Amino acid sequence: MSNDIVDNPAIDVDGYLLQGDDWNQSVAFELAAAAGIRQLTDDHWKVISALRDQYSEGEPDLFPRVPWTCADVGFGEDCIVELFGDASVAWRIAGLPKAGIDMAAYMPGSNLV
Fold first, then answer.
1. Nearest C-alpha neighbor of 45 from the set 67, 24, 64, 62
2. What gap in Å lies between CA 90 and CA 110, rounded to an integer?
3. Counting Cβ atoms within 10 Å, is residue 23 exposed (0-12), middle (13-18) or buried (19+)?
4. Which pLDDT tens digit goes with each residue over 36-83?
5. Which residue has the higher pLDDT, 7 or 106?
6. Residue 14 backbone dihedrals phi, psi, to 5 degrees
7. Whose CA is closest to 97, among 5, 22, 4, 6?
8. How large a percentage of the chain has pLDDT more than 90?
9. Is 75 within 8 Å of 14 (Cβ atoms)?
10. What 3-state DSSP class applies to 59?
11. Where are the chain's structural domains?
């Protein structure tokens, strides 16, 4: 995670960061606010960290196992939908690149399709 403060990071029309290196906690708060999430709790941060860890540990073209992320952090299976409303919102706030339509099947609650 970058510690540099990024003012107004570049995002695409769907709210995804154009440069992953622009992500930091301040940017996550901005992305969350844009998605209508007014507060990021410890539970939000556990999921965000798990998504980022899974992404960074995987092969570049593989996306984290979103359906299993909740279990990985010790939460119920619907934690992403409960915390973020939609898997793509969690993904976006975590600063990860936009998942393609083919990945939507692995992102329950996703609005990618």
1. 24
2. 10
3. buried
4. 999 999 999 999 999 999 888 875 555 667 778 999 999 998 999 999
5. 7
6. -95, 5
7. 22
8. 45
9. no
10. coil
11. 20-106
pLDDT for 87: 87
Query: 36 and 89 in contact (C-beta within 8 Å)?
Result: no
Reference 15, options 38, 1, 32; nearest CA is 32
Query: In this structure, is the dihedral angle defined by the CA atoms of residues 82, 86, 92 and 96, taken in order, positive or negative?
Result: positive
C-alpha radius of gyration, the chain, whole number: 13
Of 26, 22, 16, nearest to 90 by C-alpha is 16
Q: What's the distance, CA 23 to chain centroid?
A: 11
Q: Which residue has the tokens 């359906």?
A: 67
Closest C-alpha to 17, from 31, 29, 5, 3: 31
Phi and psi based region of residue 109 (left: phi greater than 0; alpha: psi -120 to 50; beta: remaining): left
Q: Which residue do the tokens 């906690």 mark? A: 25
* This prediction's pTM: 0.79
